[in-house]
Automatic annotation (TrEMBL), chains A, B:
Residue ranges annotated for the HTH tetR-type domain, each copy included: 10-70
Pfam families: TetR_C_45, TetR_N
Protein name: TetR/AcrR family transcriptional regulator
Transport recorded as keyword: no
Gene3D superfamilies noted in UniProt: Tetracycline Repressor, domain 2 (1.10.357.10)
UniProt source species: Streptomyces yunnanensis
């Protein structure tokens, strides 16, 4: 019995999380009324408060789930893995409500009085991990501070995404991400590694 | 008489603009009540509607005034001018309410239902102009699409700013901007031009 209850609770949490992502993606934080979320999830107010404490709690959970939504889809390593993270992210942002809502909430959080760097710091950690591996593989220029590079890539992706959203509703984000790497690789990678990188934006679909 | 009236109207507009920038910077769009702005400006509601039509109109005016706030302060040319734009911007964002509010509103605009790329496109145009000059001066690698480079720099600055705001309240933005150029210059400039660039973050104060 206990097991069944736990499973049901997990399903309820997942329904709420998913509905929250969809509604935050579509309406932003302020426009996402709690009733809209509960209706879409088909659950009660008390479930929301039990699992996430508040609308803000749910928003933070969605905001901070971005890295998990990507990491499981990668098979490459080192510098190519770092590139792939950004290409998969750029492609999946076209359709995945969790990523879309996560990015929207991260960027707009100041407007609803939240200042939570968790998602950015998780991305930084993951990207720094790829860079450490790339360094061990001899792919990087030797004068780099890897934490700084990771922080710059997180920031640059965030801003390129914002720009793409304003000028094309994000449709050209994959192409812009490829261009970012074309500009960045000479400053980051040794020439042989730069030449070896696969920058096909469709890696974002097949990777 | 007519002249005096026009001058007074301009002063009123300037007061409203300034008060709007300060209040938007401090409270964001939703938190910036019209009365708060009018009180700080010491003008009437009708003046706001006469000069800006609405709170949204005032917000757009502030958002799109960023480039003018910077351009007059520059004395360099070509690639150094592009670098200086970003260094001056990073420094002045510490204190200038017009820039601070402009950036905040640009980033958070989705949260209040606005989608206005004007400020980003002005920056792109200005930066592309610097790059064209740099190209004529032989400072750039020959395989670049200058519009794409300009768009990337606008996006990257936006994102680095957002990252800096979350982790340091923007204090380390000048340092992060210098690092951005250290990573980007090898992909953008010929080696001699890259070596010649002055990346002292204090150029943002003295330039």
């Amino acid at each position: 019995m206990r097991h069944v209850t736990q499973e049901r609770a997990l399903r309820t949490r997942e329904k709420l999380f998913r509905a929250g992502a969809e509604v935050f993606d579509e309406f932003g934080y302020s426009g996402a009324g709690i009733n809209k979320i509960l209706e879409r999830a088909g659950v009660t107010t008390s479930a929301l408060y039990f699992h996430f404490e508040s609308k803000e709690g749910l928003a933070k959970a969605v905001m901070n789930a971005q890295p998990q939504a990507i990491e499981g889809m990668l098979h490459s390593e080192g510098l190519q893995r770092l590139v792939d993270i950004t290409l998969v992210w750029a492609q999946r942002l076209q359709t995945d409500p969790v990523l879309r809502a996560g990015v929207r909430l991260s960027v707009e959080q100041g407007a609803f009085g939240v200042r939570d760097a968790t998602a950015y710091l998780s991305w930084r950690g993951i990207m720094e991990g790829c860079l450490r591996e790339a360094e061990r593989n001899g792919e990087l220029r030797c004068d780099l501070d890897l934490e700084e590079v990771a922080e710059f890539v997180v920031g640059a992706c965030t801003g390129v995404q914002l720009y793409a959203q304003l000028v094309s509703g994000r449709q050209d984000l994959p192409k812009r991400t490829v261009r970012m790497w074309e500009l960045l690789l000479p400053g980051v990678a040794v020439p042989e590694a730069a030449a070896r990188m696969d920058l096909d934006p469709m890696r974002g679909i097949s990777a």
